[in-house]
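Before the break, one more example. Copy the sequence into your notebook; we will annotate it together after we see the structure.
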Amino acid sequence: MLIGHQPKDFLLAVEGLTVSFDGFKAVNDLSFYVEENEIRVIIGPNGAGKTTVLDLICGKTKATSGSIQFRGTELTKLKENEIVTAGVGRKFQTPSVYEDLTVFENLEICYPRGRSVFGSLMFQRDAKVKERVEEVAEMIFLKDRLNMYADVLSHGQKQWLEIGMLLIQDPDLLMLDEPVAGMSVSERVKTAELLNTIIKNRSVLVIEHDMKFVEDIAHKVTVLHQGQILSEGTMEKVQNDPKVIEVYLGH
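Here is what the structure looks like once it is written out:
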């Protein structure tokens, strides 16, 4: 625990988090804290437990022990859909957009009002929905592609669309697993610009291997190794940490 702080003082407080798979601790007594409007990047070699941490936060994997508090609510006791409703959005490594729908329809289908069965039946494309879809489309650089089918988008544009599908739900915490994998250099630059824009109202937790991209976005970097924190702080601090250099050069 950080001195003088309570878990409720942070947007996300992960404490003593452990998960074992057949005796192997994929995440081992992990604690870290994410502030409001922060971009936190988790890095580390393959097998360090990075994706497992996101799986634990979004409820896909259940913790063996420990606590995950989001705005003071204990997430380990909630189901996946309840965690989404609480304000946590998650994007996986491969984009899962509806390729046979237009960009507009992909965004519209994720608009919060349509999420319950009753909401979906009663859902109407009113001015408010249209305005919100256009606002998000502009943010994700797809305003001029609203009527295009998603299957004709580039890989990078599909990644942006999926981020937009989460943004339209207005989560307080957005979790992204390797968002720039497979993107061109110019798409990576624009993605950094996008993430730096959207944290005005939320925090973003990112897993990433591209160190140039991490430098462009990270307020704070957490380095994982064998399910534990090896180092934490600014990009400059972790890059110069002898333990981090040893682990990365050793791989």
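The chain has ten helices and ten strands. The radius of gyration is 19 Å. Try to locate both features in your own notes.
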